[in-house]
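user: can you give me the structure for this one chain? tokens are fine.
assistant: on it. calling the predictor now.
[tool input]
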Amino acid sequence: MESVDPLFTVEGLAAYLDVPVATLYAWRCRGEGPLGFRVGKHLRYRTSDVEDWIRDRIEHTQYGRGQ
């Protein structure tokens, strides 16, 4: 059986990234943040999607600086 990817709540991800919850919602509206999905009325983020998004941000930043 495949292991289940742990999920972040909005509050948990905001704390992990050290950003306000409102920032996550703003990123979501603009399509800029990590991929999230609804479980009923609750927004959740898979850990692997957050890690991929962080990795992409790091690569984008490095390439943007010409490194």
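assistant: here you go. Strands lie at 7-9, 37-39, 42-46. Residues 47-64 form the longest helix (18 residues).
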